[in-house]
Amino acid sequence: MSEGGTITLKTFQDGQEVILEVADTGTGMRYEVLKRAMEPFFTTKEERGTGMGLAMVYGSLQRHEGELEVESEVGKGTTFRFRIPVQTEVQNIAETLEVEPFPSGLRFLVVDDEQRVRDMVGEFLRRQGSAVETAANGREALEKFHQSEFDLVITDRGMPEMNGDALAEAIKGESPNMPIIMLTGFGEMMTSNNEKPAGVDVILGKPVTPAALRQAVTVLRAEYAARD
User: Fold this and answer.
1) Helices (H) and strands (E) in the chain — how many of each?
2) What's 44's DSSP letter?
3) Of the candidate ranges 36-50, 98-112, 130-144, the one whose mean pLDDT is the lowest
4) Is residue 75 helix, strand or coil?
5) Which residues in 16-37 are b (16+ Cβ under 10 Å) and which e?
6) Quick one: which of 56, 71, 89 has its CA closest to 24?
7) 183 near 162, Cβ under 8 Å?
């Protein structure tokens, strides 16, 4: 808020939902701006904005089966209300039972320019009994791909030196039977737009849940095994 004001955060539970409310006393939004606020790349900040902040938050909320409510009045401020359903123990058990067992002994190449993401995904895969190599960009990943054998590649999209699109296309050009998962913050937007880069088999959005990653790996392995 360039002209000053107050931001208030509230959290509370409403039945089977957890609510996070963020309210400000800023300038507010006109109706024309409000109805486009969740659109990717829409911004009122010109060169200072990317137009991806709210779009990515909204996409992440949808992956958790949540809802976003926005109230705004010009000259008075804006309130964002995030509604996230409470996960009960019974629901978690049911979800676990529906997921196929994770294939053991696989060799993964995990590619992401964020160390935190590489560590998180790598740790999960190692706990499933898999071997993991990591790379910080597409160029480094392609070098490691040439030096070792892998069963599956998991790559980010936006990376320096060589992005995920170029990496997937290069790997599939050399190894057509190599399964490739793209794990990206643009996952929700790409899926809704039916956008899938050449060479990519499955697109997952960040943050990814263990269940979603496990299911993607299991389904991909089964699909490629059926082709042989």
Assistant:
1) 8, 9
2) S
3) 36-50
4) coil
5) eebbeeebbebbbbeeeebeeb
6) 71
7) no
The answer to whether 221 and 207 are in contact (CB under 8 A) is no
Q: What is the mean pLDDT of the chain?
A: 84
Q: For residue 8, what are the β-bridge partners?
A: 23
Cα→Cα distances 52→9, 57, 210, Å? 22, 9, 25
CA distance 68 to 214: 28
What CATH number does domain 93-227 carry, 3.40.50.2000, 3.40.50.2300, 3.10.180.10, 3.30.70.890? Answer: 3.40.50.2300
Residue corresponding to tokens 């039916």 = 194
Q: 3-state DSSP: the chain helix, strand, coil percent, rounded to 5?
A: 40, 25, 40
Give the pLDDT of residue 94.
40
